[in-house]
Amino acid sequence: MPREQFGTPNSGPVRRKKLFIKTYGCQMNVYDSARMADVLAPLGYETIDEPDGADLVVLNTCHIREKAAEKVFSDLGRLKPLKAARAKDQDPMLIAVAGCVAQAEGDALVARAPYVDIVMGPQTTHRLPELIARTHRSSGAVLDTDFPTDTKFDHLPPPRADGPTAFLSVQEGCDKFCTFCVVPYTRGAEYSRPAQAILDEARGLISAGVREITLLGQNVNAYHGDAIGSANTWSLGRLIRALADIDGLDRIRYTTSHPRDMDDELIETHATVPALMPYLHLPVQSGSSRVLEAMNRGHDRDTYYRIIERLRKGRPDIALSSDFIVGFPGESDADFADTMQLIEDIEFAQAFSFKYSPRPGTPAAENTDQVPDDTKAARLSALQSLLSQQQKAFNQASVGLHLPVLLTGPGRHEGQMVGRSPYLQPVHLDAPATDHGKIVMTEIKAAISNSLSAVAIDSTPESPSRKTATRVDAH
Ligand code: SAH
Ligand code: SF4
Ligand code: F3S
Predict the structure, then answer these.
(1) Total-model pTM
(2) How far is the CA of 26 from the centre of ligand 3 (A)?
(3) Fold classification of 278-397 (topology level)
(4) Residue of 27, 325, 339, 371 to mutate, ligand 1, most atoms within 8 A of C-beta
(5) 12 falls in which pLDDT band (50, 70, 90)?
(6) Ligand 1 geometric centre to CA of 458 (Å)
(7) Relative to the CA of 265, which of 80, 240, 405, 457 has its CA 20 to 30 Å away?
(8) CATH T-level assignment (fold) for domain 17-144
(9) What secondary structure letter does DSSP report for 160?
(10) Is there an atom of ligand 3 within 6 Å of 466 CB?
């Protein structure tokens, strides 16, 4: 196949190149990786699924726990011989390390892996083409770990839709400085995009076939972007109401939220906006007020209970998810028992849980009262077993319900499709591939480990009931 394949009227022939991106960490990184592919597409880069044969490999990294950060170095070790084999090519393989490890480790990363060509932080995605150009003039790695004053969002092309669901980044960064967390250092200060830019991006996605949008932010409910039609700012609840008014947007979700920013308006939005799905990921980290204070979370155990009570009052079927850290420095058996009690009381539909991992530069890492690893492991195992029982019970309780499912891809078997229930459960059912992107009404027949199986009960997916996400009990 000839390498010179297509051109643009203004820039002459564009050389077709291959791009491999590996994404670690949170959905913000997933969003940024998609934007990198968008920004490189006009330069002739097309995405491939493996690093072999790539002209550019991007590792979009995560620094949240030691394991995540270390994984990058083992992946770099595997890329080294691939790059060496291409060294004599006219166009050798370039390796870029992007994201939070790049931001946190910068020069140290280059010292450890000198064959890396580009090191760029999470706020300079839009500069990737320029950084690639600079590698041709530079003898060593090109570094860009700035926090530019102009935001990357002002420079990125509008995202391309890829299926019926999409992420939309509305807020970035964090000013909360939980004592265990690297995010405020790697992503920088909190920033909210103006509401107009978000609505424009949403309209573009919807006109390209998107029906469900997940609003993203490290602290998405701290959103306070420029309002439309006034000099004020909008909260997340207000933004969601404006999005829900756009024709064709059937489902809205948001993640990750912080208990401190769960204001009345947002709780009210859960009760009154049917397009806002009845699912909330609200990390609590610990059920002990003493530990929460040492974590600098800014709320105690009771505040969390009260938020959940108010949410359930307005939206009784809301499914709850959370993050937990076990073995935070100084966590006693009694503290851990408080966490287990909170889980028993609240009942989560799903959750993520981690052993505390000391991170360089964070206050908790300096604490001398570290919990031994075997204690952390025992606590994690007890906590995960309780959470997994609750997840199973939640899925089991869905059997017999009539739920609308947005079909997003091929299912487990031939002739099946998979989609998501309003509660974010994967649902498998017999459906033709042409139903991709449709919302079909189903009856849930069985709960199989972490997913559901269902049958379609209404073949007219465009019926008005599609906007209704309430649980309808089967008779
Ligand atoms: N902004 C979100 C969390 C983002 S980080 C919030 O405040 O809830 C995602 C999750 O990683 C956190 O909720 C926490 O549970 C976990 N995490 C963060 N730092 C960690 C660390 N040092 N050790 C273990 N888990 C950690
Ligand atoms: Fe990290 Fe806390 Fe900020 Fe969440 S709120 S990103 S846990 S510092
Ligand atoms: Fe990881 Fe950075 Fe996200 S540290 S969790 S990729 S904000």
Answers:
(1) 0.91
(2) 5
(3) Transcription Regulator spoIIAA (3.30.750)
(4) 325
(5) low
(6) 41
(7) 405
(8) Rossmann fold (3.40.50)
(9) P
(10) no
User: Average pLDDT for residues 180-195, to the nearest whole number?
Assistant: 95
Model pLDDT, residue 102: 95
Query: Cα(345) to centroid of ligand 1, in Å?
Result: 22
Which numbered atom of ligand 2 lies nearest the CA of 297?
A: 2
Rg of the chain, C-alpha, whole Å: 23
Testing ligand 1's pocket by substitution, the residue of 67, 171, 172, 181 carrying the most ligand atoms inside 8 A of its CB is: 181
- Ligand 2 neighbour 219 (Cβ under 6 A): yes
Kindly give the distance from the C-alpha atom of residue 283 to the centroid of ligand 1, in angstroms, as a whole number: 8
158-276 and 278-397, same CATH topology: yes
Please report, rounded to a whole number, the percentage of residues in the chain having pLDDT higher than 70.
93
Tell how far the Cα of 100 is from the centroid of ligand 3, in angstroms.
6
Q: pLDDT value at position 41?
A: 93
CB contact set of 21 (below 8 Å; sequence gap of 6+):
33, 36, 37, 47, 57, 58, 60
Residues in the chain: 475
Per-residue CA distances from 260 to 119, 257, 301 (Å):
34, 9, 12
Distances (CA, A) of 298 to 193, 288, 293, 362: 25, 13, 7, 17
Question: Would you state the structure tokens that stand for residue 275, as one six-digit string?
Answer: 């397009």
| CA 347 to ligand 1 center in whole angstroms | 20
d(CA 93, CA 45): 13
Helices and strands per DSSP (H, E), number in the chain: 13, 23
- The span from the CA of 376 to the CA of 383, in Å, is 10
The domains of the chain are located at: 17-144, 158-276, 278-397, 398-471
The set of protein residues with a Cβ atom below 6 angstroms from ligand 1 is 64-65, 180-181, 183, 218-219, 256, 258, 283, 285, 323, 325, 354, 356-357, 359
Q: Report how far residue 199's alpha carbon sits from residue 372's, in angstroms, rounded to the nearest whole number.
A: 48
Residue range 139-180, pLDDT digits in tens:
888 998 888 767 788 778 878 888 999 999 999 999 999 999
Angle at 442 between CA 401 and CA 428, to 5 degrees: 105
CATH 3.30.750.210 correct for 158-276? yes
**Cβ(253) to ligand 2 under 6 A?**
no
* Fold designation for 398-471: OB fold (Dihydrolipoamide Acetyltransferase, E2P) (2.40.50)
Query: What crossing angle do the helices spanning 333-346 and 373-396 adopt, rounded to 10°?
Result: 10
- In whole angstroms, give the CA distance from residue 273 to residue 264: 14
> What's the 296 CA to ligand 2 centre distance in angstroms?
10
